């Protein structure tokens, strides 16, 4: 064997050993009952990471609470039996491996049972975004050849142009429906276990669709060892409880949901995010982890100290923040309010996790997205595809991960170099090797020959005590080519004006980064995961 192949094999073996050590620390390696560990691996291989994990949890702790939503509690055993019945009912109705099943649901038991039943049938699930417009949903369902559509009653009209599909309601708000519900199928079916499918069905996640029709990013199969990519830097443990603010259709939500199921954790869901209800849920269920996007965290903190103090959130060990940029100001406020529990996670739909900033990383360098965890690689490249190794030099971010996708469903893929996939962002490392994201590579503003990334100016603006949120774009300028325009949402009772904000930026950044134009808004346009819709600003 050639030396390079020997080195690769040795490196892979070392990663496997380290991954097993991480899983053991989290409680996922059942020493001395290694037979249970083998059984878990077999179940995950046969049914996929979600349905396989649920079967194991139902075996180990059948009466433990597996899910809590607005309809109450379901134990792991109840989830297992009801998803058996749903899978059998669908099988009787002609649903087979290879049938694409799409789901447009908020976070509740209907969505979870759909995912579990699909896993037991080996059926791929297309996770639709509840924030998409009618034309986007129609186009995606047609492109992905959807044959079964599960949705909440509230989205019936939104899906009115989708034809040639069998429909089922996952959540109903009225007493009479023309469409059969999941409860109807479950009540009419046997709940005995099904034979394992030939192969797991997997998931198809969708990109945000901010620049056109959303692209499908399939996740056909995930190895249990890849859980170490999250658990290496995030101290989640077996048998705890996780509150989900982030929607399950998004990569952030579904990845942590699958991990929570693998850990046998109680999953607490709510159909629509409510900041005070989230605090109440954390207290009631003694949640050790909270999964949110930055705008949700901001809404919780904006309740103010009087409201925050009413709830005991001392059980929290992890606030998992992902989906969009976490500003230094917001992250610092969260650390002050909840303690040193904020984990800033950077990744994308295509690469999954790339880096994680632990509370210690954040304390050292607010705004960082941290370091690559076990099994991940991050590198920066310049415009000539040369790797950047010096600190504080901005380059394009490329990531390698065991959870990375292999291409979109339409055959396209992302740019890649040296086996790493482009995230579409630019960033830099500091002298300690911590990564910072400077912005999207297509959002750079060139003003008078100077390069400006909006996120740097936005972070300075939100540090002003009167500013709640801000977005910066480039607008045409005859003299400079582009000039900076800031859109600002002020806090209640704020008195600062445009000149005051420009002075604030000027005191902290170079003159060419000061916005010439400032427009005040009641709210920034955002998608369902908190990303600013910059094309809606002008």
Layout: helices, strands, pairs:
Elements: H1 3-26, H2 34-47, H3 49-60, E1 65-69, E2 72-75, H4 76-92, E3 100-104, H5 109-121, E4 125-127, H6 134-143, E5 146-152, E6 166-171, H7 182-187, E7 203-206, E8 216-219, H8 228-231, E9 241-244, H9 251-262, E10 266-268, H10 275-285, E11 289-292, H11 294-301, H12 305-308, E12 318-321, H13 328-338, E13 342-348, E14 352-357, H14 359-364, E15 376-381, E16 387-388, E17 395-401, E18 416-417, E19 420-429, E20 435-440, E21 445-447, E22 450-452, H15 454-462, E23 467-477, E24 481-490, H16 498-508, E25 517-520
Parallel strand pairs: 1-10, 3-4, 3-5, 4-7, 5-6, 9-10, 9-11, 11-12, 12-13, 24-25
Antiparallel strand pairs: 1-2, 7-8, 13-14, 15-16, 15-17, 17-19, 18-19, 19-20, 21-22, 23-24
Helix pairs in contact: 2-3, 3-4, 3-5, 3-9, 4-5, 10-11, 11-13
């Amino acid at each position: 064997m050639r030396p390079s192949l020997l080195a690769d094999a040795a490196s892979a073996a070392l990663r496997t050993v380290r991954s097993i050590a991480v899983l053991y620390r989290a409680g996922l390696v059942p020493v001395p009952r290694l037979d249970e560990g083998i059984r878990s691996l077999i179940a995950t291989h046969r049914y996929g990471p979600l349905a396989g994990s649920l079967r194991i949890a139902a075996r180990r702790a059948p009466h433990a609470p597996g899910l809590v939503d607005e309809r109450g509690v379901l134990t792991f055993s109840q989830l297992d039996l009801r998803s058996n019945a749903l899978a059998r009912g669908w099988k009787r109705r002609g649903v087979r491996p290879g049938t694409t099943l799409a789901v447009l649901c908020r976070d509740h038991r209907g969505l979870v049972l759909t995912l579990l039943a699909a896993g037991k049938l080996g059926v791929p699930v297309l996770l639709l975004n509840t924030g998409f417009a009618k034309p986007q949903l129609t186009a995606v369902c047609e492109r992905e050849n959807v044959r079964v559509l599960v949705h909440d009653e509230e989205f019936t009209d939104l899906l009115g142009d989708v034809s040639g599909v069998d429909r089922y309601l996952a959540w109903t708000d009225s007493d009479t429906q023309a469409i059969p519900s999941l409860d109807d199928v479950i009540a009419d079916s046997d709940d005995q276990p099904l034979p394992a499918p030939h192969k797991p069905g997997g998931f198809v996640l969708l990109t945000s669709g901010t620049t056109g029709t959303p692209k499908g990013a399939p996740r056909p199969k995930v190895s249990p060892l890849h859980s170490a990519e999250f658990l290496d830097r995030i101290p989640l443990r077996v048998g705890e409880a996780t509150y989900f603010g982030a929607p399950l259709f998004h990569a952030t939500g579904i990845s942590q949901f699958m991990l929570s199921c693998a850990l046998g954790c109680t999953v607490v869901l709510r159909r629509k995010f409510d900041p005070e209800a989230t605090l109440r849920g954390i207290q009631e269920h003694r949640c050790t982890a909270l999964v949110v996007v930055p705008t949700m965290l901001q809404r919780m903190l904006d309740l103010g100290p009087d409201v925050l103090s009413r709830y005991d959130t001392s059980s929290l060990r992890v606030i998992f923040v992902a989906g969009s940029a976490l500003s230094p100001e917001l992250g610092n406020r969260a650390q002050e309010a909840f303690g040193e529990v904020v984990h800033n996670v950077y990744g994308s739909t295509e690469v999954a996790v790339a880096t994680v900033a632990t509370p210690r990383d954040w304390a050292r360098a607010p705004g960082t997205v941290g370091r690559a965890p076990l099994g991940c690689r991050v590198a920066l490249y310049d415009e000539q595809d040369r790797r950047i190794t010096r600190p504080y030099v901005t380059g394009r971010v490329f990531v390698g991960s065991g959870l990375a996708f292999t291409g979109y469903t339409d055959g396209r893929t992302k740019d890649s170099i040296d086996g790493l996939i482009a995230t579409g962002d630019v960033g830099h490392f500091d002298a300690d090797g911590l990564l910072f994201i400077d912005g999207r590579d297509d959002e750079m503003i060139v003003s008078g020959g100077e390069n400006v990334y909006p996120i740097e100016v936005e972070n300075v603006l939100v540090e002003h005590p009167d500013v709640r949120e801000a977005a910066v774009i480039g607008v045409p300028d005859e003299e400079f080519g582009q000039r900076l325009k800031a859109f600002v949402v002020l806090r209640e009772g704020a008195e600062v004006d445009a000149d005051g904000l420009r002075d604030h930026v000027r005191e902290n950044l170079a003159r060419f980064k000061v916005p010439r134009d400032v427009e005040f808004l009641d709210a920034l346009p955002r998608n369902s995961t908190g990303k600013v819709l910059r094309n809606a600003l002008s």
